[in-house]
Write a structure and sequence with these properties.
Elements lengths: L2 E4 L7 H17 L3 E3 L5 H4 L13 H13 L3 H18 L9 H4 L6 E4 L7 H4 L17 E4 L14 H8 L5 E3 L5 H8 L3 E3 L9 H5 L11 E4 L5 H14 L3 E4 L12 E4 L4 H9 L3 E4 L2 H9 L3 E5 L6 H9 L6 E2 L14 H29 L1
Parallel strand pairs: 1-2, 1-3, 3-4, 5-6, 7-8, 7-10, 8-9, 10-11, 11-12
Helix pairs in contact: 1-4
């Protein structure tokens, strides 16, 4: 079966591209004729332009972001862009012509569409719910639609989206979400089985990720990667650096306008392959990013995860499944001892079970499609 994965592969974001690679690589072991659907709408690509474009963005906000982008522009930004493009072309969309509109999706020849992972059902990211990410478009070749680890960004959406969500979900034949907390919400809307499965990065083991990472010459450092500012995280990093006599390397997409943390080495040139390398060779990882946390677990690093202001469900869900709840630093709480011994044998067994259930969902879903024929 010709299978296409509809996801956020075109976003210049480490997690977005790595989860796309993980799902594509694993699915090809089941259905060799699997590709990333080259759907690259302007509302996803435009946010990464120097002069950004996003639906509904005010001219004032656009001007502010544009000024910030130019004030923080360095040669490393162009290096990062090149590395992002190289990774995407080499591993995700090589030889495929981009599709910019939902009308273009109607001409593709995939029989099965796999939606996800990532926050494809988060209207804050997609500027409203988008039909493409629900398989809600006509196509004479399309036979089956599977949602794999689709995310809302949290456990539910505002009630105002209920009717639209219910209508769009009717286009999906088999449903699964990434956050266990979202199962009840989606089930309430569709009144049929909804599974909770792992993010695609967990479908591959450390050895498979090492094949595509860029090894680093750097050693002995503390890695910081934030998806939003967190003073407690940086205080912890600085304290740990002084205690261990190690430098702090902070991965960022752009440098600060006036200053960055003077106690950190700011790196803005990393692509997805370098991102993996930085995590793999770090002595410690401090983050509030889901995927930085996920790869810290995969690579068995000493790490702490700091709570995110709006997207905590997915962080807590994985930590709970791996019996690593003490690695979460919640608001107002003191960090756990980062050097405390982790029973990685127990964690690997938990991950094996998580992976097993998720693989079963994919195999059963594809078998359903074949039975439907």
């Amino acid at each position: 079966m010709k299978t296409g994965i509809l996801t956020f592969h075109c976003s210049d974001n480490y997690g977005a591209m790595l989860q796309a690679y993980g799902l594509k690589t694993f699915l090809k072991t089941i259905e060799p004729d699997t590709e990333i659907v080259p759907y690259e709408p302007f509302f996803m690509r435009g946010r990464h332009w120097l002069i950004p474009w996003c639906p509904g963005m005010s001219l004032i906000r656009m001007a502010r972001i544009t000024v910030r982008n130019f004030l923080t522009l360095t040669p490393d930004n162009f290096i990062q862009k090149k590395r992002m493009k190289t990774f995407r072309t080499k591993y995700l969309t090589k030889g495929l012509r981009p599709v910019r509109t939902i009308r273009g999706l109607k001409k593709l020849t995939y029989e099965v569409y796999v939606l996800g992972s990532d926050q494809i059902w988060n209207p804050d990211i997609t500027f409203g719910l988008r039909k493409a990410y629900f398989g809600a478009f006509s196509n004479k070749y399309k036979k089956f639609v599977i949602a794999y680890a689709a995310s809302l960004g949290g456990s539910s959406l505002d009630d105002s989206y209920d009717q639209e969500m219910r209508s769009l979900l009717a286009n999906v034949d088999r449903l699964s979400v990434r956050e266990k907390a979202a199962v009840s919400y989606v089930s309430r809307l569709v009144r049929r089985e909804v599974s909770a499965v792992v993010d695609p990065v967990f479908l591959l083991d450390a050895g498979e990720w090492e094949k595509i990472e860029t090894p680093l010459k750097k050693r002995n450092y503390i890695l910081v990667y934030k998806t939003e500012n967190n003073e407690k995280l940086m205080e912890c990093a600085n304290r740990l650096a002084a205690e261990k006599n190690l430098p702090v390397i902070e991965l960022k997409y752009q440098k600060g306008i006036l200053f960055d943390n003077k106690q950190s080495i700011v790196e803005v040139g990393a692509g997805p392959a370098e991102f993996l390398g930085y995590i793999h060779y770090a002595d410690y990882v401090l983050t509030n990013s889901f995927h930085a946390m996920a790869f810290s677990i995969i690579y068995q690093k000493k790490f702490l995860t700091f709570g995110h202001s709006t997207r905590n469900a997915r962080l807590e869900n994985v930590l709970e499944q791996c019996a690593l709840e003490e690695r979460m630093v919640r608001s107002g709480a003191e960090p756990h001892d980062i050097d405390a011994v982790i029973d990685w044998t127990k964690v690997k067994e938990s991950m094996r079970q998580m992976r097993k259930n998720s693989i079963l969902f994919l195999k059963e879903s594809l078998a359903d499609m074949k039975n439907k024929e």
